[in-house]
Specification:
This protein is α/β, with parallel strands linked by helices. Helices cover 52% and strands 12% of the residues.
């Protein structure tokens, strides 16, 4: 490609990107109203899951919180209730498909259809790959990959028939 043409193409793309950013700054997209929506947050006992649950509580969403850690889950629920949200908690091990399916059925039956699913639960090890134990790798895969599939299916009524 001719260097002058390449420079022109680059400058045109840059100008377009700046113009687009300016338009989005001046005319922001309308935010979705989540007041009253049923929001399921996994990994809600601490960290990003807790922060996400608090933000939805501030917006007056109805919350369903899942985590494997009961104590942290209760703390998050109490914080969200102080913010005015209705909160339901479930101790769920997201590495176990059966627990996900069972909890999802209970949520649907007792609380209602989930309209927003925040697949936040995650597991990580700080060791390098060769130092990581096999069971740790399997747990990471179950929670960080497979759980997203099971949760999405279960919350969209796509459970396998038994």
């Amino acid at each position: 490609m001719n260097p002058a043409l390449g420079l022109l193409l680059f400058l045109g793309t840059l100008l377009y990107a700046y113009a687009e950013a300016l338009v989005k700054l001046l005319l922001p997209a309308k935010r979705k109203a989540v007041r009253g929506e049923l929001v399921l947050v996994t990994g809600a006992a601490r960290g990003l899951g807790r922060a996400t649950a608090r933000e939805f509580a501030r917006c007056q969403s109805r919350l369903v919180l899942w985590d494997v850690e009961a104590h942290g889950l209760k703390e998050t629920a109490a914080e969200c209730e102080r913010l005015g949200a209705t909160v339901h908690t479930f101790v769920v091990d997201c590495s176990k498909r059966e627990e996900i399916y069972s909890a999802a059925k209970k949520v649907k039956k007792d609380i209602g259809d989930v309209s927003i699913l925040v697949n936040n639960a995650g597991v990580i090890t700080a060791a390098d790959l060769l130092s990581t134990q096999d069971h740790q790798i399997e747990k990471m895969f179950e929670v960080n990959i497979l759980a997203h599939i099971w949760q999405t299916r279960s919350n969209r009524n796509k459970l396998p028939t038994e």
